[in-house]
Design brief:
Elements (H helix, E strand, L loop, with lengths): L15 E4 L3 H12 L4 E4 L7 H6 L2 E2 L3 H6 L3 E4 L4 H13 L7 E4 L5 H13 L3 E7 L12 E6 L1 H6 L1 H5 L3 E4 L6 H28 L5 H29 L9 H17 L5 H18 L8 H5 L8
Parallel strand pairs: 1-2, 1-4, 2-3, 4-5, 5-6, 7-8
Antiparallel strand pairs: 6-7
Helix pairs in contact: 8-9, 10-11
Bound molecules: ligand FVH.
């Protein structure tokens, strides 16, 4: 009830369509159904629609029927080739006009830009999305869904999109969600690799992975995230004061890791790659700068090693 003791407006969940019922598309459809959205689904292999039909989804016989059923069309298929295979005939028949297409299929930023232009040419609003979770995380407000492209599409369909996870709008350029998605996966893989390497080194001497991981998580969420917060403005400013720990000091420190790994029979290629990158930064004149200066050699990998 509001201040005048009148009931707050209750919005009826809007219809939504999900194209593609692989692992991820099935989770998207289930989350929409859980929030009461009348949900239409279509999948190339119709048998995969049974689980969602049992939850109450309407199973469309064709992509055209699926698109016609809702103003909001979510697409999550293997890749852009599959997406065009499914949607080109619908678009050519005029079926996408006036629709909001939210593409959750993974691809490159360039593919997202092309898809946005293609959608516009067929009269559809376009929002590109990056799903930053696996299917079990879909429906949790903790999980980020990155979006870029038409903000109007996001705002019009916010309740349905919020049923999938926390929508984070990055800007009007359609490729931004894909760009962030790829960069964040790169961060995840680098973190996994560093964690597993450290785990191999530590467990070689007896402590279990769970003990090391408990300490590693405190290191990551406390100190390391703090370093990143300090270094990001340095990157933006292009100035890297080495008043905490210099590149030269960290080159010395990584030698200890290379030594410890080698002494335990653990592969050293990962820390050696990192040491070589730091050495290139030092050779480019950043030895007395902070670690953030390493971005200079990452941005210009072909640049001469000397200043
Ligand atoms: N699974 C995940 O954790 C990640 C999280 C981040 C985002 N990705 C991307 O989501 C897209 C789909 O991934 P998926 O995990 O659902 O993949 P599959 O379970 O393999 O399902 C693939 C669906 O695509 C359909 N499909 C494939 N080729 C075609 C085609 N030529 N024409 C029509 N549909 C096609 C496939 O249909 P079917 O094989 O069941 O008939 C599935 O519906 C993907 O971009 C991830 O990178 C997921």
């Amino acid at each position: 009830m509001n201040a005048q003791n009148t009931p707050s407006p209750v919005t009826t969940p809007a219809p939504a369509t999900v194209i593609g019922l692989g692992n991820m598309g099935s989770a998207l459809a289930a989350a929409l159904l859980d929030r009461g959205h009348p949900t239409t689904v279509w999948n190339r292999t119709p048998e995969k629609a049974k689980a969602q039909a049992d939850r109450g989804a309407h199973v469309a016989a064709t992509p055209a029927e699926a698109v016609a059923a809702s103003g909001l069309v979510l697409a999550c298929v293997l890749d852009y080739d599959a997406l065009h295979t499914v949607l080109d005939p619908v678009a050519e028949a005029g079926g996408l006009a006036g629709k909001s297409l939210v593409n959750l299929t993974s691809g490159s930023p360039e593919q997202a830009e092309e898809m946005a232009a293609w959608a516009a040419a067929h009269g559809a609003g376009y929002l590109d999305g990056g799903i930053m979770t696996t299917p079990p995380g879909v429906g949790s407000p903790e999980m980020m869904f990155l979006y870029s492209g038409s903000e109007a599409v996001l705002e019009t369909h916010r309740p349905a999109l919020a049923a999938l996870g926390d929508p984070l709008y990055l800007g009007a350029r359609p490729g931004l969600a894909s760009l962030y998605d790829s960069a964040l996966l790169g961060l995840m893989w680098a973190t996994f690799a560093g964690w597993l390497h450290g785990t191999a080194v530590v467990t070689a001497d007896g402590p279990p992975a769970t003990d090391f991981t408990r300490v590693a998580l405190r290191w990551l969420t406390g100190a390391v995230s703090g370093f990143m917060t300090t270094y990001a403005p340095q990157v933006d400013a292009g100035r890297y004061p080495g008043d905490d720990a210099t590149v030269d000091v960290q080159i010395t420190a990584i030698d200890h890791l290379v030594h410890a790994a080698r002494a335990r029979g653990v592969d050293t290629s990962l820390p050696e790659l990192l040491r070589a990158t730091m050495e290139r930064a030092a050779a480019a004149g950043h030895g007395q700068d902070s670690f953030a200066s390493v971005i200079e050699v990452l941005r210009a990998p072909g640049a001469p090693a000397t200043p």
